[in-house]
Structure formats: structure tokens, C-alpha cells
Amino acid sequence: MTHPPPLRVVAVSGGLQRPSKAAALVEHLSKLIAAELHCELQLVELGQLAPLLAGTVRRSELPVSVELDLAAVENADVLVVATPVYRGSYTGLFKHFFDFIHQDALIDTPVLLAATGGSERHALMIDHQLRPLFSFFQARTLPLGVYATDRDFVGHALDNADLLERARLAVERALPVLELTHRAAASSNRTIAA
């Protein structure tokens, strides 16, 4: 009996620095998914791509390394995205990166949304900024977003029981959709192989 291929989970961190709280959050959420489903995890850190994206207006002008990250996002079975909140929205770098994603590439792709910010007053950014962005792509945004404040971290490590529970619950609520996605991906791979 052959095992289905792993679910391709691509985590995108809009954090501008390394280490970053946004990266820590998407990595934690990705690992929670991987604890439940057979996954292949990939992290795309936009802060590392910033010098390569700066001033670029056409995808054809991007270096191969950025193209590979864009292709990974476009071919993901599941996306986990997080961005720091600046001025009530996602970072400009986050938007610039997703401006290069083909508008039909994420149709029906499940997306777990997350954000980090200095205080709770930005928590609605997930629903007011991130959900509309991924709705444009016709992606399937998952039911619960995860918002973390600076107080939820020690250094760049998650350290708040309520946040960890929210992350666990977000993944638990996402699992029925992710399991369907995994079965559909495995089925399409079997059809291609035949």
C-alpha cells in the first residue's frame, strides 16, 4: 500500500527582521498542522527577500530565488501566513510579495491567517485586511485567525497559554478542511501517476 504524498504546507512570514515574531508564529502553527497530518513544511521569510524585491515591478525581473518562493506559494496545498501590523494593516513588503502571485494560483487553497502587533487594538486586522486580500485570490480562509501581541512572546518564542490555546484551536477547527485538501491532493496525484 502506498502512502499519500505529504501535504505541502508553505508558511509565509511578513516579518522584516530575523528572528521575527511573525516567523515564530507561522512556524508554530505549521508544526501544529504537521503533528496532525503528514506534511512537508517550507518557510518563506519575506524580510530575507526584501533586498531582492525592492524596486521590482515585474515578476520577470525577479531573481530565481524569489521565483522559487513565489512558485512554492502558488503550488502550496495549504498556506500559513503571518505579518506584523503596521499602521493598522499588513506590511508593504507582504503586499508587494503577494502582488507577484498569479491571481488564479490560490483558488480554493486553505489559508490560516495570523498577525503580530504591539497591542490588542490591531487584532481585527486579520478580518479587515488579510481576509479581503486572500478573498481576492479566491482562497479558502480558515475559520479562526491567530493574533499575537508582544506580551505573548519571550524574546521570539511564544510564551502565553491563551495564545497557545488559540493556535491549537485554530488548527483543530481547520483540520476538516485540511484533511479534505490532503485527500484531494493525494487523489489528483494518483490520477496523474495512472
Structural write-up:
This protein is an alpha/beta fold and 194 residues long. It has one domain (7-193): Flavodoxin domain (Rossmann fold, 3-Layer(aba) Sandwich). It is built from six helices and eight strands, in the order βαβααβαβαββββα. It is globular and about 45 Å long.
By CATH, the topology is: Rossmann fold
**Assigned CATH superfamily:** Flavodoxin domain
Described by its quaternary structure, the protein is: single chain
Radius of gyration: 16 Å
> Which stretches are low in confidence, meaning pLDDT under 50 for 5 or more residues running?
none
Overall geometry: globular
Number of domains: 1
Helix count, DSSP H or I runs of 4 or more residues: 6
In percent terms, what proportion of residues is strand?
15-25%
Helix percent band:
40-55%
Features:
194 residues, alpha/beta, Rossmann fold, six-stranded parallel β-sheet, 6 helices, 8 strands, 45% helix, globular
Topology:
Blueprint: E1 7-13, H1 21-36, E2 39-45, H2 46-53, H3 64-74, E3 78-84, H4 92-99, E4 110-117, H5 125-136, E5 140-141, E6 146-149, E7 153-154, E8 157-158, H6 161-193
Parallel strand pairs: 1-2, 1-3, 3-4, 4-5, 4-6
Antiparallel strand pairs: 7-8
